[in-house]
Automatic annotation (TrEMBL):
Superkingdom of source: Bacteria
Segments traversing the membrane: 20-42
Protein name from the UniProt record: Uncharacterized protein
Region of interest (Disordered), ranges: 56-75
One Pfam short name: Glucodextran_B
Gene3D superfamilies per the UniProt record, alphabetical: Immunoglobulins
This protein's UniProt keywords: Membrane, Transmembrane, Transmembrane helix
Amino acid sequence: MRSFSRLVRSEERKNLRSAVLLGVLTLGIIALFFFFGLPLMAKFAGFLTDLRKTSTPVESTDETPPAPPRIDSLPEATNKLSVDITGSTEPAAIVILSLNGKEEEVLANSEGEFTFNFDLADGENSISGKAKDEAGNESQKTDTIKVVYDNDSPNLEITNPSDGATFFGSKQRQIVVEGKTEEGVSLTINDRFVLVEDDGAFTFTTTLGDGENSFNLKAKDKAENLTEKTIKVNYSP
């Protein structure tokens, strides 16, 4: 009977030690879970969230209009039938040119450069433009550029002296070449620039040499149209 009691007590002590050991192990596992398991779970949850964000398409809208295109300088007047309109804007943007009230579209290249050949109408032509980006935003309009198409040569009249005139003596050695052309014309006499008044009148004082004297007059307007005349006079001392 005593032997049986000792066995029971021994078994109880073993069970108690096992229970204590199991409790310690359980607490250790719980502690390890809190120290290592929760951060790992949090990182895993964050990874899943980032993955969902990456796979979800992001919608973005561009509502910022581009800057107006830059149009390279054009002549104030020309005698050519057409002009090349060149300039720059955003790469791959569409440039909408307003040409005498009619709109034309030209696509800029990958560097933002564009070019368009414009057939001019007689007289004054109006040119302006705006840019439209890939999102459909349009810029403000550029300032209007005026180009005059003119293929008429300027008038040039020599009123004095007459062609073939003869001058004598020291008092007539110095003469005045005078006449009339158009306002804004560039005038040369024997390659020397001569002032043209607002009404087109001009005068040129010169001293004659012995014998034949030749005077070559060239009047060129802003469109590069040229009128040329030559007169000859004689001088005898």
